[in-house]
Amino acid sequence: MTTAFEPVRIAGDTLSNRIALAPMTRSRAGQGGIATPLVAEYYTQRASAGLIITEGIQPSAVGQGYPFTPGLHTAEQITAWREVTDSVHAAGGRIFAQIMHSGRIGHPTLLPDGLVPVAPSALAAQGQLFTGEGMKDFVTPRELTGPEVRATIADYADATRNAIDAGFDGVELHGANGYLIHQFLAPGTNLRTDEWGGPAEHRIRFAVEAVKAVAAAIGADRTALRISPGNTYNDISEPDPQPAYEALVKEIDGLGLAYLHVLEHGPQARETTLALRKQFSGPLVLNPATEGPTDHRALTLIEDGTADLLAFGALFLANPDLPDRLRTEGPYNTPDPTTFFGGDARGYTDYPAR
């Protein structure tokens, strides 16, 4: 029986355990999307994870969706991230950059030079988001033209090369949670009638092409994809997601990716996870649906073969030494959700480690 504390091979490297830090928006970048010393401290504290997956990093200026999020599209950003990766590696950790284009989830006040959010179709998300000027309604995005779709895919590949230059061990494309790749996948946000929209085999094309472009840029063994079938976050509608995601996984399975990362959502989530697990021949990272923060009770999902690694979110924020605490089944510091996005001055450095 495999346990969470046994090594696993990812991206040609042997990870010390099968516990991953899930990607979570931290909003602690400096001016110009620069990773700060606080960012380095935050990730280095959690270097005992087998794998760290960073917060979403925008591949271009128009890809930014929230205030104070970092980028990987300028020389200054690359240099700043190198300080982070060097620190994590010195502490014995391994770290993947999550590349996240937010698509229609954003606002012009966050973007330079008169830019507006872009998306597969000109449909505004319902709801509001926090900006530097307070809460604002989502705006109607500009629909990407065919050539712009191709250019956006190239942005993913360019940011990925930058990630490797910055010292990351690999890259995870964010295809979940209602951001750009997910917007192309979902029929409720993709109303296109060209090669990028319509039936499932067209809606998956953007995700497939983005994955292939990144794999061509840095190698498939350092490329991963995160998905969340049926996730309604950010006003996404996917009433029958499984066929499209099975088609997506079929298209990318033969590439030899580092891993597939599944974020579960909804009552049918585990059924879909198991179906995709059968289809995907590489390692599966699972962010499981649980009651409250995921803790040691979820480790049975590795033992029974449902997943190869488990990604922990809120509990890892409050417990920088989480692998040790999982091994002893606690005790755990209690996460405080009111401080997740910039509310605490030190980025959870005040949570005690043992």
Q: Please report the distance between the alpha carbons of the first and last residues.
A: 28 Å
| Number of extended strands | 14
Strand order of the largest sheet: 3-4-5-10-11-12-13-14
Outline: globular
Element pattern in H and E: EEEHEHEEEEEHEHHHEHEHEHEHH
Task: Give Rg in angstroms.
Answer: 19 Å
Spans with pLDDT under 50 lasting ≥5 residues?
340-350
Q: Structural class per helix/strand content?
A: alpha/beta
Number of helices: 11
Question: How large is the share of residues in beta strands?
Answer: 15-25%
Written account of the structure:
The chain has 354 residues and is α/β, with parallel strands linked by helices. It has eleven helices and 14 strands. It has helices spanning 37-45, 75-90, 146-165, 180-185, 200-203, 205-218, 242-252, 269-279, 300-303, 314-318, 322-327, and strands at 8-10, 13-15, 19-21, 51-57, 95-99, 118-119, 128-131, 134-137, 142-143, 170-175, 223-227, 259-263, 284-287, 309-312. The chain has an eight-stranded parallel β-barrel with strand order 3-4-5-10-11-12-13-14. Strands 1-2 form a two-stranded antiparallel ribbon. Helix 1 packs parallel to helix 2 (75-90) and helix 3 (146-165) packs parallel to helix 6 (205-218). The protein is globular.
